[in-house]
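Lab meeting, action items carried over

1. Structure of the two-component assembly. Owner: GW. Status: complete.
Input record:
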Amino acid sequence: MAEDQLYTTTTQCKTWSYGPTALATIRENTNAAGTRSIKRGWKRARVEASTANTPLATTPIPSNTPTPVPTPSIDPLSVPDPMTLTPAEELTLVNYYILKLLEMSDVFSFPSNVKSTACVFLSRFHLNHSVHAYHPKLLLSTILFLATKTENHYIPLSEFCKRIPKITPEAVLKYEFTVAGGIRWDFDIKQPLRAAEGGIMELLTALALTGGDPGLQTLKDKLAPNPVRRVQDAHGRMKAYLTKEALVSDVYYHYTPPQIFLGALWLADKELTEAYIEWRFGENSTMGRVVKKKKKDKKGKDKAGNGEEEEAPAAKTLPLAPKLIPTVAACAEMMTKAQEYEKIPMDVLKRIDKKLHRCQNPQKFLGAGTPLGFGNEAPKKPADDGPPEKKRKADDDLFGGSLR
Amino acid sequence: MSATANPSASSSLANATAVRRTLPFGNGNGNNTPLPAMMAENGDVKPSKDDSDASDNDDPDDLNTRTKKKYTKDRKLGEGAYAVVNLGHRRATATEAAVPVAIKKIKVNTEFRDGLSMDAIREVKYLRELHHPNIIALLDVFSSKNQNLCLVLEFLDSDLEMIIKDSSLTLSMADVKSWMLMSLRGLWWCHKSFILHRDIKPNNLLLSASGVLKLADFGLARSFSDPYRPMTSNVITRWYRPPELFYGAKFYSSAVDIFSLGLVFCELMLRTPFLPGNTDLHQLELICQALGTPTEENWPGVTSLPGYHEAGVHVKERGTDFFMNTFIAAGESGVELLMKMIRLDPRRRCSAREALNANWFSQEPYPTQPVNLPKKGGGKGIEKVGSDLKRKAGELFNTPDDAGRGKKLARKLDFGG
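Predicted assembly:
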């Protein structure tokens, strides 16, 4: 069985790979479901408000809420439904929290695989679960902790909690089943990290050879004057793309791990990547015999190029490079676009969060009803105030205090 | 998808290739395997079917409830400190009849307070990915109302340990060959998927009603380590643990599983554990006596392993003569395979793939068809499961579960067995 066939047996490929249109459709559906649940919640709240006409007495409004309580004179029936978030706004919010997750992971100096897995968990979770119902903020520590366990990098929860201010073990575990079920128990994330290290090793090994392979010579010429140095430099930059842009974008849904690796390498050093692909999979590639060793590369590249063809006679089929290069370029492009998310101004984010806050808290505007959304439901325990602290102090200024 | 072996699995003996199995996981796309790179051009795969459930409330609890409702829980098969195993059934649907399953409920661990235990996570993580006729199928996962994790597994009748210990059975070499073949196929698939099982032993090799053998209990499994990333050497039940782990090797390979399986091979022939050490030290001594003392000559680099110490016994690494005397029944080619599986030097052990290519398998007597293999099962099997589960807690840890009956518990480093 070919390596790329092996990849097709993974849950990542079977369950979590989509084309762009399908992905957008899923997000729209999720958004629509979230919107409906908000509307239903408001409807309920409105009924409650109009029946119990003494909202102040009956509503369990957390006393410390800074939001002004509507005066009882407001007719709940005249308050319009809140504006709900658009799919794009949901995505913006999720990606913002993915960036936060990266920061949180760095507090612990977790290895790249833990970091990547955590981000993919969050992204996958929100693919099917609207932020209207599950504020990503509430899930970050749970997800990060779960990722340490699934990546075999477990640290005791008590240790974990010491590093994040104001978080308790109970808060981390409270949502663990929700998250695990929300990602369908698919804990195995195939990251591009191994492919990346393998590819770099392959390059460095080949460059160290003194030898007559003409393809290799061409590669060396292209990377002159100091090929090794060039690969090493690209390596570092590539890693940065793999642990940020690759995670904030949708590439995990659209590309195989080795393609993502090549995409990141492309961003790090385009010429190098082209030369590498040409050498490895170009028309005159002399790499046929090495193919056996390099499973990771083979996996992705074959897939990229010839989807359903058998990979066995790799040497004889059409060269992959012409198909692979555009794929890799598109993957790189997608990652580049992800950089936009980092530049989104804070006030835009705040506006989105404010909208969400309004959606989830009809009681504050109608004078009755209960907060909506996961983690909001228990008024006895002002959940609104509790979980936000989970996040590190760094973002207190963001969505934490100021908004609520 | 039936929980018990499907008939086609038995024919797998004939064709060595693995058949990918479609599981009743709600979300598997069956045989349509989208190729991500191509999607951009040809459109898309259909949107996820599973989740758009009618309910507006996209609550995972909802999905969980639906999953849970697919199954009924029948009688308890066994209970231990870490898990309860119940026989259950997947409810009949319009198109499918009810199917027996084993529901393994992982108890909230009193000692591990950090949520889902590592064992449970590993088991779920790997079984979600591994689909092979010789690997137990995880059919579903859900949580019970008390936040206990429940794994729905293929229901299997018995395990190899029960067969080995049943003195009323006579095992022919063809039978042994058949079990070895199926074990190796399952193991090959694990290794091919970059997963180390790390607890191969007879009671983790379960048998379906139709005789098909399946690897179970992935509570100690892990994926291959990245270069330079150490792994714990404290794995594998002692009697089946290879010498490099006793020497504290932090970087090891699929050869550890091969060694364990090699000892299972011996046990199938001897009908008693080949190297039943009482302590780790004793175990190492037994290994030295039986296989030879590791030295720089027969195992370059052994003396630099972190836990290396000179053995008291000095035995030259055993040659063919020794094994031929002990395991004459296997014949020359069988002994040749055995020796390759339990070489002292892990680098010289064969891979699962190489083992599958051994001449032994293509020589007479040919492997017995699974349906014709000696069986146990039935009432006794169930009792065993129960008793296994009741074993001392500390050693087991997770349990097995497996399937039910077959169970075993293994776990953790101690010897459970």
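2. GW to write a short summary for the group page. Key points so far: Chain B touches chain A through 56 residues (CB under 8 Å). The first strand of chain B starts at residue 71 and ends at 79.
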